[in-house]
Amino acid sequence: MPFTTDRDLLALQPTLFREVAFLAQTLFRATLKVQSGQLVIIGGGTFPASIQPGHVAMLGERPLEIVSITSSTSLTVSLTRAHAAGQVLVPADTADLPGSIATFDPQIGIIHQQILRMLGLEAARQTLDADGPGESAVLNPADLSLVETLGSLHLIYSAAAAALTVDSPLATRAAHFRERFAQERWRARAIIDLDADGRADTVRTLNVIRLTR
Fold first, then answer.
1. 53 with 66: CB under 8 angstroms?
2. How would DSSP label each residue in 14-63?
3. In degrees, to the nearest 5, what angle opens at C-alpha 92 toward C-alphas 91 and 96?
4. Which of 23, 63, 85, 130 has the greatest CB tally within 10 Å of its CB?
């Protein structure tokens, strides 16, 4: 499982889903409204199973975190929080508005695999096997959320700015997140359980790539 979600990207870059929505994967689009803290569908239909907590809904121009799946027609939502574990910030009720739910999961997935390989782990290998520890060996995934968020934002804005000049706003954002990602890579530490006993055996950093044979 990734260490970050769309709501973490949003918390760090509030304009993300307005600036580069064309790079996101749209999961759902309909007329929606907020009622008593719930995002509900107007005119029938259901939310697809692909929508998960951590995704972001755009209601008009307002982004909302999806906190939980209440039912097939109702989602608990929150205004943007500093942390995913923070208290839900209930948005005011709204009129019927055009809405959509989109995700940057593909970009997050690319950076997630890159981080795991820097740690000497493989995303496809979840547990300990003959070749070594898998992804579940990371005992402090929350501590790697920021570096994965920054790497994902760098990837997204780099793609958005690919055809633009280096001094364009999107290119400037890409350079900003590249620098922050590099800095966080040197700071971040992963606590690793090498023998699946639930206890820390080593601490690995993200500033080197490990080669094995």
1. yes
2. TTHHHHSGGGSEEEEEEEEEEETTEEEESSS----TT--TT-EEEETTEE
3. 105
4. 63
Does one domain contain both 66 and 148? no
Q: 123 and 94 share a domain?
A: no
Residues 90 and 163 in one domain: no
| Structural domains in the chain (count) | 2
Position 9 in a domain: no
Among 207, 6, 212, which Cα is nearest to 105's? Answer: 6
Domain, as residue range, for 63: 25-103
User: Are residue 128 and residue 51 in the same domain, yes or no?
Assistant: no
Which of these, 29, 32, 28, lies nearest to 41 by C-alpha position? 32
Whether 143 and 78 map to the same domain: the answer is no
In tens digits, the chain (213 residues) has pLDDT values of: 899 999 999 999 999 999 999 999 999 999 999 999 999 999 989 999 999 999 999 999 999 999 999 999 999 999 999 999 999 999 999 999 999 999 999 999 999 999 999 998 876 555 555 466 788 899 999 999 999 999 999 999 999 999 999 999 999 999 999 999 999 999 999 999 988 888 999 999 997 655 544
Greatest Cα pair distance in the chain: 60
Q: Answer yes or no: do 115 and 89 share one domain.
A: no
Residue 77 parent element (H or E): strand 74-78
Within-domain flag for 155: yes
